[in-house]
Write a structure and sequence with these properties.
The protein is of the alpha/beta class. It has one domain: 3-Layer(aba) Sandwich (Rossmann fold), CATH 3.40.50. It is built from seven helices and seven strands, in the order αβαβαββαβαββαα. The structure holds flavin mononucleotide. Flavin mononucleotide (FMN) binds next to helix 2, helix 3, strand 3 and strand 5.
Length: about 210
């Protein structure tokens, strides 16, 4: 009987610990606890493209804008990619074969911004074609560019090297790589939009500026 009561006690304590842990994690994912100590120079734009329904890159862009006071600028394709993941893969592959860009809705020039965060999902190891079009149609001379990306498990690939190549006249800062949910997780209904919290973003900002 004593042993039974002891086991029961351990189970109850463990259950309480799990619930408390989940609560802490849930609050960590919505509230930053790390303070932004960095003072970012000048006027800031947070430009991003995000394609999937869960919006991994959009989530990170919003966190960056929240903590930097930057203005969110969304890149949108004129012709949106298909809803199905498989069809998007095919359409993106076609874009890659045809010069790597895709027409985008007008994004105003970056005049007046000193710091430009630029975010993309990783597609085939680099930025998505709408972001390639954004680089082609905008000038980054004299600006500070801060790249960030989300990926489905394969990492940042060539993204940071390609961003540097796309804006040679800018000062490009150390970028941020975030693992986002992938197709398998979405199908299974598991995982979270991004496998990180706002704290990671604030820590990165503090390290970069
Ligand atoms: C066309 C396409 C290509 C992709 N290529 C890669 C890749 O090379 N490496 C990787 O890790 N994830 C890849 N992914 C997964 C996305 O990078 C990942 O899910 C991302 O977080 C989606 O961001 P979003 O929600 O902002 O669209 C690809 C997704 C698509 C649709």
């Amino acid at each position: 009987m004593k042993v039974l009561l002891m086991i029961l006690g351990i189970v109850v304590v463990a259950a309480i610990a799990v619930v408390a842990g989940c609560r802490i994690m849930a609050s960590r994912s919505t509230e930053a606890t790390v303070a932004l100590t960095a003072k970012l120079p000048g006027k800031i734009a947070v430009v991003y493209y995000s394609q999937s329904k869960v919006g991994n890159t959009a989530t990170v862009a919003k966190w960056i804008a929240k903590h930097t006071g930057g203005e969110l600028v969304t890149i949108e394709a004129v012709e949106a990619y298909p809803d199905s993941y498989g069809d998007t893969l095919k359409a993106a592959e076609k874009d890659m074969e045809n010069g790597g860009t895709r027409a985008i809705k007008a994004v105003p020039p970056l005049d007046g911004y000193d710091v430009v965060f630029i975010g993309s999902p990783i597609w085939y190891g680099t930025y998505a074609p709408p972001v390639a079009e954004f680089f082609k149609t905008h000038s980054f001379a004299g600006k500070t560019v801060v790249p960030f990306c989300t990926h489905g498990g394969g990492g940042a690939g060539r993204y940071f090297v390609d961003v540097r190549k796309a804006c040679p006249a800018a000062t490009v800062k150390e970028g941020l790589t975030i693992r986002g949910s992938n197709q398998i997780e979405r199908r299974l209904g598991t995982g979270v939009t991004v496998h990180h919290t706002e704290d990671d973003i604030v820590n990165w900002l503090n390290a970069v500026f």
